[in-house]
Amino acid sequence: MIAVIDYGVGNLFSLCASLSYLNIDSVVTNDISVLEKADKIILPGVGAFGDAYMMLEKTGLIPFLKTTKKPVLGICLGMQLLFDKSYEYGEHNGLGIIKGIIYPIKEDVCKDLKIPHMGWNSLTFKKESKLFKYVTEGSYVYYVHSFYAKDCSESIIATSDYGTEITGAVECNNYYGTQFHPEKSGKTGLSILKAFSEL
Description:
25% of the residues lie in helices and 33% in strands. By secondary structure, the chain is an alpha/beta fold.
């Protein structure tokens, strides 16, 4: 069973629909007793980093997230929260699980490119990962974001090009993250979720 963490800032419907399509048992919860029984954890997220961290803090689940040995997948903002800190509208501490910092994309791309970075981009693999068991390099995934992870080369497993090299996916021990949205990325996204369910 996969537990999807509900802390008030996730787009849960599309994600749960994708898991259901794959016949993967899932539950939406912020109950630590349920999370402890789950096989894997997904941390979704949309919105602003600082607000999301405060909402996550209110659940009391941060100690669990930082110490669990279960596979954890952070999606979009959920991935960003795994890093050390973010410079999104100020400076905010993250969970500190993966080394790296979240910066505005607009500081690193030309003004002709629209922010947020929204749309389909191909993946370039940087390291072999079980997350891409059913995915070929060059497959397209769907992004919606204005900030991205930097200073995290040790954990990067895939990137996409958007005027600069965007960190697309990361892996560090039992923690995984995708800046793109697997639940909105068609067959490729479903393949990534399937691979995560099999870890």
